[in-house]
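Let us practice reading a record.
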Amino acid sequence: MNAAPDYTEEDVGNIVLLEHVNLQHPNQPMAILFYVVGLGLTRDPYISVGLQNMWANIGEQQFHLPTRAAQVIPGHTGLVIPDLESLKGRLKGIEEQLKGSCFSWSAEADHVAVTCPWGNHFRCYAPGKFGDMLLGIPYVEFDVRQGAAAGIARFYQQVMRAPAAVGSDNGAPLARVAIGRGQWLCFKETAREIPPYDGHHIAVYIANFSGPYGFLKERNLLMEDVRNHQFRFKEIVDPQSGKKLFEVEHEVRSLRHPMYQRHFVNRNPEQIQRNYKRGRDALIPFGS
């Protein structure tokens, strides 16, 4: 007799949204060329519109791109882009201007692999692989040292109260942490040397704020105490042993944060002057 379904796949967990990835870069015009012209993202028209920072909208997520020394994530970031053929054309169009930088791109079996001018890696997928997401950041994958995945999964399960499990990818252990309705963080073990942490960060919203805060506060793991409905930490530790396993700054926001569910403007990068179609300027980040 078959067991009754338990519907655990419907559980969301405590981390309800991965909102932005923060990556510094040393050249604002080059960042605009890559993120806006090449990837086809949209500069936020309301906040950080000066020369020292840019917020680039991608569906219901953003990249925050302050102009400072470059930061590089060890691993890669997954993106959903509405039309990969159009993406290829845009990337080809910026090749000449980005010569001499780390910029590159290639068409792979199920995605387009892209490297930004400063060495960050992205995998761009067509819609359909990540639920109804048409445009967005479904996941970030970090390289971690061997033996770290199980403890990282325990940290997110027990401290952040998010569903997490250890699996494998091409034989490499990997901790996968579920976020909201279709996002996740991955921590993939590698034998390669991992560079020193350079300060890049992610921002997440959590439903139960006090539980993770209390654990981190008690163990002196906070980088920044609560201010404007958020706190920050960077050390991921094994809750059983207390051993530090990985560093990446988390900007952790409660659902009372004033920017929770803020509407992000997204343009349709296919809309250009010579083939303009009335009413098609905007792009809706989820399919209907």
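A brief commentary: The chain has one domain: 12-258.
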